[in-house]
Structures are given as C-alpha cells and as structure tokens.
Amino acid sequence: MMTRRQALKTTLMTSLACATAAEFRFANAQTPAPSTAASGPFTLPSLPYAFDALEPHIDARTMQIHHDKHHAAYVANLNKAVADLPELSSKPVDDLLKNLSAVPEKVRTAVRNQGGGHYNHSIFWQMMKKNGGGEPSGELAKTIDKAFGSFNAFKEQFTKAAVGQFGSGWAWLVRDGSDLKIVPSPNQDSPISEGKVPLLGVDVWEHAYYLKYQNRRPDYVAAWFNVINWGYVTERFQGASK
Ligand SMILES: [Fe+2]
Q1: Per residue, what are the HEC states of the chain?
Q2: Domains along the sequence of the chain with CATH
C-alpha cells in the first residue's frame, strides 16, 4: 500500500512531468494547442495549421498568443456571460450575433464583444493558410472584378479600409444580398450582425501584428495578402460555409 509520503512524491513527479511537457511545447511554439476542454458551451477551435505556418508574413509567436490567449479569452468570457442563460448557450454563436436584439440586455454587450471575438477569429484562422495568397479564380474573381473594377482595385480599397480603421477592428469583404462590399467594423463587431455574410476579413487589432510590425499596420496588411486562403473564401462565397 502506498504511504502518504510516497503518494505525495508521485503527485509531485507527475506535476513536474506535466509542467516540463507544457514548457517544452511553449518553447517550441510549433504545434497549436488542441481545443480547450469545454468549461462552457463554447470552445476554442484548434488552429488549422502550425503556429509557424504563416511565416515569414505572420510570426509564430504572434499566432500562438493570438490564438491561445486572445481567442481563448473571448471564448472563456462568452461562456461566463451565458453561464446562467441556457436559451443562449444552446445556440451557435453566429445565431446569437445575427439576432443581438433577442439577446437579454444585461448580456447583450458581452455577447456582441466576446461572441463577436469568438466568431470573427474562428473564421479568420481559416481565411489564412500556408503558401496562401495570389488571386481568386472563377465566379468569385469575376464578381470581384465587376464590383471593384479589378482585383488590384479591390486590394487597394480593402487595404485602405484596413489601414484606415481607427483603433481596433476589422476590414471585411462581405456579401450583401447580391453585392460584394468592403466594410470596416470597430472592436469585435461582426458583419453578420448587420445581415451581411463575411467572406474575407483582416484583424487589425494591434495584437494581430504588433510583435513583428509594431506601428506599421500597412506593412502587416500588405504581408497578410500573402497568406489568404482563397479556397476558403470561395467556399464562403458559394454559401458552403456559415
Ligand atoms: Fe484578433
């Protein structure tokens, strides 16, 4: 039978082994964390690629902090906000954001900010990929040409919206009915709360770029075009994704 002293020693050794493993993973910063254990109805989705997949355009350390800390915090805070409200916690986050006026007033701002942060980041990770960039093709390319004149004109207008967003926020390419539009949004406001379908979005919060680009948001946005996952954007355009 294990003595109390032996049990304590075993516990301590196990804790040390876990801490070492965690530090090793953190130090290497190559492997995204698995989805967090659900402490509420909403969970952090895994990053669909390694932290360093978007190098040199987006650095691994930024991706790790952005996903594991910032996005995780939106999820945790959203869970806290809806903890006592099963009528909210049973719905997908995009359903809540599409109908904010139906959310009880006492948690509406929290759902808008934390839920918006969760939803926006969940699609943002998928809008990027290793060896991304280039230009869209097919119907999406034609529709962009029709709406903005050319891909370069679209890129110019999108960049202007991203760089010009005052303070924290996003710039989006959205589908609004049958039109394509470029719209900025402050904070974590999401275009889906205005009935628009976000196809492509760039996070221009400083947490998305400050470690590598400091105050040079235009350089970050220019580099970010090299990691766009146009395949995913096309799926969204075709209505395959929410
Ligand atoms: Fe962000």
Answers
A1: CCCHHHHHHHHHHHHHHHHHHHHHHHHHCCCCCCCCCCCCCCCCCCCCCCCCCCCCCCCHHHHHHHHHHHHHHHHHHHHHHHCCCHHHHCCCHHHHHHCHHHCCHHHHHHHHHHHHHHHHHHHHHHCECCCCCCCCCHHHHHHHHHHHCCHHHHHHHHHHHHHHCCCCEEEEEEEECCEEEEEEEECCCCHHHHCCEEEEEEECCHHHCHHHHCCCHHHHHHHHHHHECHHHHHHHHCCCCC
A2: 138-237 (3.55.40.20)
